[in-house]
Amino acid sequence: MEAPRLFERPVRRFLWDVKGTGMETALSLLRHRLNENEHTTLRDIVSGLPKLRRISKPMSCFLSRHQETIRVELSSASARQSLAVGMANGFLAYLLDRYQYMRPSAQDRARVLDSYRAMTDVIADATDEPEGSAGTALGAHHDRLQDITLGMLRSVGALDDVLNGAAPICRQYSPSLQCEILGLTGDDLTGPLLDIGCGEAAELVGFLRSQGYPAWGIDRLASDHGQAMPGDWFSPPTAPGGWRTIVAHLSFSLHFVHAHLHSGSEAKRYAIAYMTILDRLQPGGSFLYAPSLPFVERLLDPRRFHVVASPLHLPSGGAVSSSRVTKLVQGSGLPPEEDAG
Ligand SMILES: C[S@@+](CC[C@H](N)C(=O)[O-])C[C@H]1O[C@@H](n2cnc3c(N)ncnc32)[C@H](O)[C@@H]1O
Fold first, then answer.
1. How far does the centroid of ligand 1 lie from the alpha carbon of residue 231, in Å?
2. Could you tell me if the CB of 258 is within 6 A of ligand 1?
3. Which of 5, 129, 262, 263 is disulfide-compatible with 38, CB 3.0–4.6 A?
4. From atom 4 of ligand 1, which residue's Cα is the shortest distance away?
5. pLDDT at 91 over 60
6. Residue 133 sits in the same domain as residue 187
7. Domains contained in the chain, number
8. Is the CB of residue 322 below 6 angstroms from any atom belonging to ligand 1?
9. Ligand 1 centre from 216 Cα, in Å?
10. Which residue, 113, 142, 163, sits at the end of a domain?
11. For 262-268, what is the mean pLDDT?
12. Which atom of ligand 1 is least distant from the CA of 172?
């Protein structure tokens, strides 16, 4: 399968955001560079592929020819800042797209931005041959990006995976498939529903809302507008009286499994977040997720939680198991509907 174009999605959004801000030549230079490296993989970045560290001949010619225009376009601090922020966000979004289990810290984000700031300044101020100052700066820039990426992968125990060619790409799925896999029923929709890791487009949330159900979503990639709120599942939002239903399709539990297999400290964080999510449910409410988490489900107190894991065979031939964990009405030891009957 052909690797998706480097930065394609984040950069398309970024180029749209800065459209008409008078940086057309600088953006052409960026596009040029992205086209040259469109099939770069995460492994290329972490192993320091020499091509990434060099200015190609056509790039060098473009820079020489347009140096003065680029200098004028990037003469203000705000223009340089917006270009650097856009590129840094594009790079981080690319990393999360390519290896979804990475978790950049605030410090990682700041270091990526600093590196793009430094690179932008060199391009804006270049006075000699591009192979000179810009070429040296590009090498140093890629050394820094390589170092930051290595650190992020090591912190989630994933470096070996990436060096072995693994690329757990982040995808989004249709609402109907998600409903089927999660086993969502009408009863789950009688109160507020939260989708954690709902995806940038929050398709399940949008679908439920279009049917008149009170649904919300959080995702670390969500922008401030739209039906998904930016948020982190390590601090899930609350609802007055609690959520009737919380869903996580190939999101929270998938990452929990990865942490369980790769890093003890990450797994502990996930275990704490899992209990916080259950805490956010109203009595009788359920947490529905896929894949299942048998290694943690068996530790739940059966007087407080009722667990049902359902294996599901997909039309594609794959198999997945989803789980429904229901918070019992205190003292009854039964899910509410059985209690009532
Ligand atoms: C494989 S996608 C699944 C999206 C959606 N649930 C679906 O099935 O279409 C996993 C999602 O989890 C989000 N995610 C990863 N870590 C997160 C975190 N710590 N907090 C919130 N969202 C996160 C990613 O941004 C991504 O959108």
1. 10
2. no
3. 5
4. 199
5. yes
6. no
7. 2
8. no
9. 14
10. 163
11. 89
12. 9
